[in-house]
Amino acid sequence: MHAVDLISEAQQLAESIGFEVRREWLGERVGGACRLGTRWVLFSDLSLSANEQLEQIVNALRSSPLLPANFQASTHLQRLLQYGMPDDTLSVAKTPSR
Fold first, then answer.
1. CA distances from 87 to 22, 52, 57, 84, 90 (A)
2. CA distances from 30 to 15, 59, 60, 93 (A)
3. Closest Cα to residue 6, out of 91, 95, 98, 86?
4. DSSP H/E element including 56
5. Considering just the CA atoms, what is the radius of gyration of the chain in Å?
6. What is the pLDDT of residues 20-71, one digit of tens each?
7. Are 85 and 58 in contact (CB under 8 A)?
8. Which of 39, 45, 91, 92 could lock 26 by a disulfide, CB 3.0 to 4.6 Å apart?
């Protein structure tokens, strides 16, 4: 699965469990999850590469008290949320399958 697809799925998961997801140009400042009053907001930094954005979102979800133990996600996203980001990078561009 490609990083861009996983970003979309992870953002949908975040919204489904109560996050307001904000994709903004943060200029490589710290993104991630924070609580603003009674709202949970997840900031995704558009100045980062797709892999770095995915890592930011995955780390925020992994540390979130909102993520239920029985969440529904693709196998790949479930693994990322369980074990964290792999050392190797994920593909950003879709390549045709042979």
1. 26, 12, 16, 9, 9
2. 20, 12, 11, 25
3. 91
4. helix 50-62
5. 13
6. 999 999 886 778 899 999 999 999 999 999 999 999 999 999 999 999 999 9
7. yes
8. 45
